[in-house]
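Notes from hallway chat w/ T.B., transcribed later so I don't forget. T.B. wanted the structure written out for a chain they're using in a teaching module, and asked if we could keep both sequence and structure tokens in one place. Agreed to drop them here.
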Amino acid sequence: MPDLPLPDLPLIALAPLVPLLAALPFALRPGARPGRLPAMAEGAMLGALALVLAGLWQFLTHGAQSLPFAGLALLRLDAISATLALLVAFVGWVVIRYARRYLDGEAREGRFHGLTLAAIACVLMMVQAASLPVLVAGFVATGLVLQQLLIFYHDRPEAQRAAAKFIRVWGAGDLALLAATALLWHSLGTVDIARLTLVSSLDASAQIGVAFVVLAAALKTAAFPLHGWLTEVMEAPTPVSALLHAGIINAGGVMVITLSGLVQHSAGAMAALVVLGGFTALFGALVMLTQSAVKTALAWSTVAQMGFMLLQCGLGLWALALLHIVAHSLYKAHAFLSSGGAVAAVNATRKPGPVAVPGVWSVLRAFALALGLFGAVAGVFTLTLGEKSPQALALGAMLIFGVSYLIAQGLADAAPGALTRRTFAASLAAALAYFSFQVVAQAVWGPSLPAVPQAGPLEWALIVLAVLSFGLVAFAQALFPLWAHHPSTAGLRVHLANGLYLNALLDRMIGGFRLPLKS
């Protein structure tokens, strides 16, 4: 990655400066009427988006570049950073545009726009970081700005409690990353990300440094059991929930993917990502099913999705994990911004009548059919495009379990023929889409990321454990209508709806129940 003189710096490196400079008028006039400032905020984001697109063109025409200063690599331009910067700038522009109407007339509208611009600038710097000190600085700055957004309605005790939990968990992640930086510099003699990803072996000190990287990633992605703050962000304005998906809640995954060449040399770190990510995904998905509020269910869905993304990283499916970040960010930002009309839309939908309840044999047939379709599609792609890794096949099996529930409904005795055909088509489409997107992701980002590691005994054990766990949970979910009214099930549902009370334990640990009311 060649170092460029200042006149030839990548244009994408200027993208964080535009929203940061645009935030200054809001900071200098916090109590003034917004006036034209919201329009200026949207214009600044369009300017940042244009610079990112220009940087992407530079990468396509001139290759990877970096911006050095005083012997330290500051920002980089490559396939990964360009993709993430484009995602952050686009979602940031959408959030700013939405917030202009959402907060129109709000007493502190200007402050919100200023903080949002500052947060986007910090994230743009973070996803382009070319060295660990710059990455740490981006994380710290992002956390401080987001804390202020979480307490935008500062007279709400719930908002104060969520912000207090967030800054503790996020700050702990910053400390873990700082410790990793010190250990990796002491062991490998560099903090440059490009050089770190080229190492061929790790000594004991570097292994501990990688462990701290994984710990920081888990804390940044609200992984189990410190996920509680994410489920309480609804106390902030709705645009904040969407902004979280512009490289903030998935920042841990961004960091691990950026350092994938280093992390993959530690078998223990990869195993920890699989176990922690898989358990977080299953836990978040189960709790999500018990939620009645739309935004709370979306928050728990994000917990599950971030866990699944860490699982993908632990399996070495780096390109798929990056694709997951991009797709989930776009989908979930839209879901939060449109959540206000979700209830009305559901109520306006014509109710089709009772749902077909599948029996045990219907569920078993559904799983067999789904896996059979998946195997057939996998065989076709393997014959035409080459052999697939066991990790990729295992991940596809976990995903196909998600549509097995639909197929089970289609195979129920009371199901009409149209429903059966539709659910069969859904399973086939899911299998085709999975392998198609895998090919596309590998073609776009594969050359910049490590190859999927060979599966040894540890990897095979984790693969089998993950597939069985996801299969059992999906099987239980498909049979839920049969045992939903059992007394013991009702009690379990209450416990799951409260997240097994882990959030309450965290509140007690930090004194969150006794936070003073500030005005």
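Follow-up for T.B.: Confidence is low (pLDDT under 50) at residues 1-7. Might be a good example for the class.
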